[in-house]
Amino acid sequence: MVNHLITETPFAYRFICWFCGEPTNKTFSFPQHSNYIPDCVHPPMSIYTCAECLRWANAAHEDNIWQVRFVVKKALINHYKKHLAIGINWTKKSLEESGFEQGNFASFQKSAWMMYEIARDRVNFSGWPIEINGNTLDSSSAFITQPFCFDGVEYPSIEQAINQYAENFSLNKHYLKQVLSVVGKDNFALAIRFCRVQVGATPQERASALRMLSVDYTN
């Protein structure tokens, strides 16, 4: 029987999900009783988790709590990809001026930006430092992928951002990665614009454009 220690939660975050910031009275215990992890870098623990994140966390087979969070964040991104796409395709002002006040899209105009903000805030929520018996746990040895921040959203990794934007704009994901290898992830917006110009181009035309881009960035 695994003895799970209760983590010390800051007062402002009492009954708040550590993964996404939603109110909750549930907890997630890690490692689970049936999942012994001899090399876990922290003691067994229980932490506040909402019902939705609890389902994803329970399905994760990872070595520590921070790797579980990475899995849950990926699940949140996938779950909310249509909501997050609102923020990619619209601004709050452009929605207000969209002219959808009447007809079938009136409810979309009224609620879309709020839906985007809820999804964005759950994805971006970073939790709080985990403390047990007065000691703050160190996540530096957790071997987790670095998050990637772009346009107000923190993705669990740049791979998740690539997937989101490739799907949203019908981009060739492999080609987008090739462009990023040339311009660098700090120029993610430029890479997206470049790939959008190439939508509908033949493979030969895309390859030629990539060669010209490479020349520009090596000169």
Describe, in plain words, how this protein is organized in 3D.
The protein has helices spanning 51-59, 65-79, 81-89, 92-96, 106-124, 158-168, 173-183, 188-197, 203-218; strands at residues 5-6, 27-30, 45-48, 131-132, 135-136, 148-150, 153-155. The chain is mainly α and 219 residues long. Strands 1-3-2 form a three-stranded mixed beta sheet. Strands 4-5 form a two-stranded antiparallel sheet. Strand 4 and strand 5 (135-136) form a beta hairpin. Helix 3 crosses helix 5 (106-124), helix 7 crosses helix 8 and helix 7 runs parallel beside helix 9 (203-218). The longest helix has 19 residues, at 106-124. It is globular, with a radius of gyration of 21 Å. It starts with a strand and ends with a helix. The mean pLDDT is 88.
Largest sheet: 3 strands, mixed
The overall pLDDT average reads: 88
Q: How much helix, percentage-wise, in residues? A: 40-55%
CA radius of gyration: 21 Å
The oligomeric state of the chains shown is single chain
- Note the beta-strand portion: 5-15%
What ranges have pLDDT less than 50 throughout 5 or more consecutive residues?
none
Structural class label: mainly alpha
The count of β-strands is: 7
Helix/strand order, N-terminal first:
EEEHHHHHEEEEHHHH
Instruction: Give the neighbour order of strands across the main sheet.
Output: 1-3-2
Compute the separation of the termini in Å.
63 Å
Large-scale geometry: globular
Number of helices: 9
